[in-house]
Design goal:
Layout lengths: L2 E4 L1 H9 L4 H10 L4 E4 L1 H11 L2 H4 L4 H14 L1 E2 L16 H10 L3 E3 L3 H4 L7 E3 L1 H9 L1
Parallel strand pairs: 1-2, 1-4, 2-3, 4-5
Length: 137
C-alpha cells in the first residue's frame, strides 16, 4: 500500500477548510486509501502550530484533540530519525524528508514551496491535489 508523510500544513488546511483538497487527503487516509507515516516530532508540531494565536481561534480545540488521537491510534508511528540537511531554503522542513526517507514512504504531501522545489525520485513530493490524483490512478 502507498505510504505517505503529510506535512503539518496539510492537516492545518484540512481543519481550516473541511471541504478542501487537504481535507480530502486526510479523509482518504481515514478511508484506508494510503498508510500515514508520522513521528513524534510531526505530531508535536501539529499540536504546537494549531495553538498559535492566528490559528487558535479558527481551529476547534476538541476537534484537534480528536484528530491527534486518531493519528496516534491509526497512523504508523516511526521514531524520529537522526537529522540531516535536505531543504537548504527551509531547514525546519528537513525532518519531513528524513522521516519519509527513513520510513520508506512513497510520498510527502505538502503545500510548502521549499519542499515542492526539491527534486527527489523517492519520496515524491506532491501537492495535495497531485497526491489525490496519484492515489486515484
Amino acid at each position: 500500500m502507498l505510504q505517505a508523510v503529510l506535512d503539518v500544513n496539510v492537516f492545518i488546511s484540512a481543519f481550516l477548510s473541511p471541504q478542501g483538497t487537504p481535507a480530502a487527503v486526510v479523509e482518504a487516509w481515514r478511508n484506508g486509501r494510503f498508510d500515514l507515516i508520522v513521528s513524534p516530532t510531526l505530531v508535536r508540531e501539529l499540536e504546537d502550530v494549531s495553538v498559535r494565536p492566528h490559528l487558535a481561534d479558527r481551529i476547534d480545540r476538541s476537534d484537534l484533540i480528536l484528530a491527534v488521537a486518531d493519528i496516534r491510534r491509526n497512523a504508523t508511528l516511526v521514531e524520529d530519525p537522526p537529522p540531516a540537511r535536505h531543504v537548504q531554503s527551509d531547514p525546519d522542513d528537513d525532518y519531513l524528508v528524513v522521516l519519509a526517507l527513513a520510513s520508506g514512504a512513497h510520498a510527502i504531501v505538502t503545500g510548502d514551496t521549499a519542499l515542492l522545489a526539491l527534486e527527489l525520485d523517492r519520496p515524491r513530493i506532491l501537492t495535495p491535489r497531485d497526491f489525490l490524483t496519484a492515489i486515484d490512478a
